[in-house]
TrEMBL record:
Keywords: Repeat, WD repeat
Positions of the Heterokaryon incompatibility domain: 781-871
WD repeat start-end pairs: 11-52, 98-133, 273-306
InterPro entries cross-referenced by the UniProt entry: HET, TPR-like_helical_dom_sf, TPR_rpt, WD40/YVTN_repeat-like_dom_sf, WD40_PAC1, WD40_repeat_CS, WD40_repeat_dom_sf, WD40_rpt
Classification via Pfam families: HET (PF06985), WD40 (PF00400)
Official protein name in the record: Heterokaryon incompatibility domain-containing protein
UniProt xrefs under PANTHER family: HET DOMAIN-CONTAINING PROTEIN
Entries under SUPFAM superfamilies matching the protein: TPR-like, WD40 repeat-like
Statement: the UniProt record of this protein carries the keyword Transferase: no
TM ranges: none
Amino acid sequence: MIQTKIPLRQLKDHETCILAVTVFPDRRRMVTGSNDKTLRLWDLNTGTVLKKMAGHHNVVSRLAVSLGDGQLIASGDIKGRLIAWHGETGEQLTPQIIKAHSNWITSLDFSPDGTVLATGSADHTTKLWDTTTWQMQGDAIQCSSGGSIRCCTCVRYSPSGKLLAIATHKDIKILNSGTRECVAEFKGHAQRNYSLAWTPDGTRLLTGGDENDPTIREWDASTWQQVGDPWMGHSRPESINFIAVHPASNLVASAAHNRLLLWRLSDRHTIAIFHHSACVRCFTFSVDGKHILSGGDDKMISEWEVPKKVLSQETLTEPASKAQAPNLKILSIDAIARNACIAGKLSTAEELFTREIDIDCNSYIYESYANRSLVVARKHDWDHALEDAIKSISIQPSLTGYISKGIALCGKGKVLEAKIAFDLAFMFTNEDSNITHFLLLIKAVAIFNANQHEEAIIRVQSLTAACPHNDILACRVVEAYLHVRLGVNATNDARHSEAADFFTQAISLLNSNPSSSTADIAYLYEDLVVLFGWDLKSLWQDAHQNRCDAFRRAGRTEEALDSYRSMMDVIDENAKARCLDWSNAFMQEYSELHLASGNAALAACDYDRAIALYSVAINLNSTKDIIFANRGKAKLEKMLWEDALFDAEKVIELNPSSHVGYEVKHTALRGARRYDEAIPVFEIMLSKLNTVPEALIRELPQHYFKAEDAIRGAIQRMELENVPLRLLNTSTGLLCDRGAQINAFQTSRAYNELLLSSMMHTDLPMESITDTVTTYLHCAMLSHRWGEQEPLLHDIKDKAVYELKEAGHFMKLQSFCKIARRAGYHWAWVDTCCIDQNNLVELQKSLNSMFTWYHHSALTVVYLSDVPPSSKSGAMAKSAWNTRGWTVPEFLAPQVIRFYQQDWTPYLNDVSSNHKESAEIMHELEVATGIDARTLVTFQPGMRDAREKLQWASKRVTTLPEDIAYSLFGIFGIQLPILYGENKQRALGRLLQEIVAQSGDITALDWVGKPSKFNSCLPAKISSYAAPPCTLPCLSEEEIQTAVSSLRHTVDMDDASKFYDKLANSYPRFSNCRLRLPCIIFPVTEVRRRPGAAHEILFTYGVKADGLCDLLITTEQTLVQFSRARSTPPQTFLLALPWDRRLLELTHFADDAESLGGWSGPESLDGSPGEEELADSESYSRALRLIVRLGQPFTAFLLAQPRSGEYKRIASDHSIIAQIKNVASIHNMMDVRTLEIL
């Protein structure tokens, strides 16, 4: 480590402590501030004070000099006052002292471009000042937060100027200097943060702490995380007052107490220490980085040499950022004059330089002449420019003097003399390679301006190739500008293709450094703007715009558009604003061209080309609604619905009062089948049609309202009684009543589709309307065996079933709804939760309508909860579902049915839409139920074959005993009151009573078992129908005809006819538990019990009756034995042949299969014998046929009548089969009576 105690020299003039020091970019001068309330302007070469600057009334605490030109000095004092000074003359620029803060100004820093000054203060604020007006920009930046006082200790702009770092006692904030948005905020050091410094490349921020944490910390500017460990070198109680980074090397310096440490940035090691005799208050590196200038309590500026060994090891070969920008500014021109030159205010600049020349004792008058020469040359006043240049050189030869002479000579066309002047200028570059490099570029530009274009460009290209380590960006910028100039010349000569090529070369050169913005270029090479009036900020934009125009004028349309797009894709919003007028004109021209071409393509039905052309026009930021409308129409023809919808929305946005956008949107929505959205759009379109001239379009509202009325009428006409009262919406899972169902339809896609399609027809498609309404409101119904925890109405009311989470409880319901939804049905019905079990009126209506609902359902899903997945044929027959009473109508009524297994997969893996069309499944169901497959598929409710239907349900069970009867109401087409609690005998009795009463069919009386308390002719249980009816022998037609022929000789015609007429007019009646049954009566003459076991339950009796063959009857009842010859019985016994009207062979009897109303009595029997005039022979033959049929064995009823009571049927364990002894003895059958049986 190098230790140094003796400085190279010490500069004395201040009376007290020196608190601030900074050097000028021109390397010649330095400015200092002191406790003595003054500033000193120093000549670094001689060490003498050039000027003492008084103005502050308090201690001058901080100083700053503007980067680049050094034409501004800012000073602040401990009372918060701020003064701006001229960098060259040391004169005060502000008429009055600026009251910047209310407390000590702790830090000052100019932005890299010198347009803003940042001031930090102990009053807890940071402020930004415009260096032209010296007015504060925006509000003060508060450094306090949450009531915590945070004194601002240091402010520093990043090398790019985009960030502003602010150190306070508590934390460090990083702000976006343009927006003031806080980019990062972190604590920094243990207690107070004292100092800040950026590395030249802006990738690191260095911070210094107070006496409690005297370390330097390094922060990554991309993440704002600390890099490595703190730099340890200073010791307590030292506070690091200042940090500075070497302008062109990997070195850092820091000052604390009486020591100044030099660090190596790469490894954070201390490599040198400069010991001071007193406390160090401030320091800075010289511009060339070879010296350190420090000030402090010793009232002197000490100049220290950076050890050559260290410098040679650490110096960088190439500047890394704007921190080195001063090396590229070789003109010594103050800020005001420079700004005037940059702004093109040449007369102002000329006047300023003339004033400088006229000032007495101006030691830099030679520079003033040279600078005025440059300004006059800008005005193309070459003679006066050359005159001033020569005058400057005569006073004192200088770099600026010879540059101005070379430029003036080139302007006069004296290129050879100009080259000599430029050659002499190289003598004054101090062997600085950057200045030499820049001077060569200036020389090339001057030669170009002398119309030596080719030579100038070759010089620039050669310089680029020869010096790759120098500032290549400057070479590329210069070459690009020269190519733009060549392009402009070519454009003026109407050589448009050649011009486009020049502009393309310029753009290529500028794009080779994508990281450099136009603002960066204008800042770095500001001297080129001063010298030649170049607009470097607009260089890139000008090259692109000129290339677009050149391509357009050359007829290279596609290249012009590509060039335009590439330009607009990369420029920012500010650049777009600057070129707005040009861009609008360019887009307008091309937009109109492509619109016309697109319209032609659309008219020719070339839709792809039309879309492409309209798209180009739109991409040019065209906002014409007609372009979007026409492109949308072309997309509609291509059925690109969503794309057309986008264009329609744009048309509506651009021209909301027109119907066109809504017309395109409506058509697109229809095409995309988004009918629920299409309807409101159509309605809006209708509202826009008042001013439309087309008659067809004006008629659309009438079609719309007609279609709406027709659909409303179809809903009203629909037989809603065929649909359950409540249904589950399969989309939402919500339970809906009838009103909600209709409302759902009217807001559905199906409704909108129907409305849209209907109104497009002059004649409304009524059949289609009716079908759509019916289809939408049809539902899927579930047939299942109730489980132990079935959800009821109150469990799901006002809840979405899909959202109910209780395990198992709702799974069946949810799965069924999903099955129905996947099948395309909007509604689903389940008996467990879609009926209010507590509402007796609703319950009765629902149970009476159940068969009708299942019959008209779109689908009935049968869930076999106990049939495992992948079951084989036969599993359904074993399911508990097949034993339940309610399932009989649930599989007979539907037209479409599907069976599902335990896991909700189709039974037998049959994925067909209707299992009633599956021969295999229907055969299995036939075997399981005893119902033939044809009937299973085509069943119609009615009372035909009542005995057979009762047999289907005879082995079924229900949870509620009455349900065994109620479940059959629909099968017979009967509606009766639902009276739970009445008991099953009465429920079954009421059903059978209604069957007999309505149809006259007495086959329901054919059973064996125990009698019902409802009526003795009815069974106590439905299981009494389990055994099939007794099968009796039947005569063939030939046998009947033979028997009839034989009877003609023995039976009188009148007797036969009377007998027939009497039976033909006899009908059964059944009401109030009393059966009035027409019978042929055979009085019992003898009852004798046959011997049997002593404890037997059933008794067998031998029975004799008049006109009948003797027979045996087995019953559990004890009959009184008697014989007419020996005793008079206590009760009368009759054997009765119940009159069955089917024996009349009337083809229309009980023909009720197509009607739920059934047979209604004798008045409906058209053509009965009592109402027709029959020929005697026909009547006689019919009567004889009846007698022959009656002579066959028949099932008889044994009736008993106490002496003062009604008849009751005595039940038998087998059918009582009787037969007439002699059919020829018709008088034996003439006892035809209607008996009232209880």
